[in-house]
Design brief:
With 208 residues, the protein is of the alpha+beta class. It has one domain: Hypothetical Protein Pfu-838710-001. 16% of the residues lie in helices and 49% in strands. It has an eight-stranded antiparallel β-barrel with strand order 1-6-4-3-2-7-8-9. This is CYTH domain-containing protein. It holds the Pfam family CYTH.
């Protein structure tokens, strides 16, 4: 298991090009820029037991490769979140529940894992940078700029956000980097994950 620590920020879709031209992403500290498509399918029971337990289970397709991820209940404040995370490479896009043995939350022990089915998807382009930050607090981070959409049945919602994930170093550096980026574009902290937004779409669709 690893602990995921990241800062999530909302950005207007039309501001992406402005952010990409920021000197922070084009100077010496920046290396290894990558752009790729990410397609994610989230799984749950028909009565949304995982969602109720604040657990996310997904399969991600990235450049023809599949990764199964389990994220457990964490905490989030002012866009900064921390939670447990497990990842496994897959041969296909099919969920492998045997990989969950030993890490499945006790609060969900009574669930029949064969009842886990796809509930919504996310599809977005990610432009990612590795930054070695040397401010007051030093850190190595991955800065990701995401643009795409969440799909739940006929419902669609835009994804447009920046994620700054801590690789090593000081957690305080995440806010320093965000402060630097805000000199170029407007960024608002968000405590709502892509998975949570997907459930909002599902439940809104059920209510209309």
């Amino acid at each position: 298991m690893s602990k995921e620590t990241e800062l999530k920020l909302l950005i207007a879709p039309e501001a992406h090009s402005q952010l990409l031209s920021d000197s922070l992403l084009n100077g010496t500290p920046c290396a290894d820029q990558r752009t790729f498509q990410l397609q994610n399918t989230y799984y749950d029971t028909p009565d949304q037991r995982l969602h109720q337990a604040r657990v996310a289970l997904r399969i991600r397709e990235k450049q023809g490769r599949f990764i199964q991820t389990l994220k457990t209940r964490g905490q989030s404040q002012n866009g900064l979140s921390q939670r447990g995370e497990w990842e496994w490479p897959l041969e296909t896009d099919q969920l492998d529940t045997t990989l969950l043995n030993g890490v499945w939350p006790d609060t969900l022990a009574d669930i029949d894992q064969s009842a886990l089915k796809p509930v919504f998807t996310t599809d977005f382009q990610r432009t990612a940078f590795t930054l070695n930050w040397a401010g007051e607090h030093r850190a190595c981070v991955e800065l990701a700029l995401d643009l795409g959409e969440i799909r739940a049945g006929r419902q669609r919602e835009v994804i447009s956000e920046v994620e700054i994930e801590l690789i090593s170093g000081s957690e305080a550096a995440l806010q320093e980097i965000a402060g630097q980026l805000r000199l170029s574009v407007s960024l608002e902290p968000s405590d709502v994950s892509k998975a949570e937004r997907g459930y909002m779409l599902i439940n809104h669709q059920a209510d209309v």
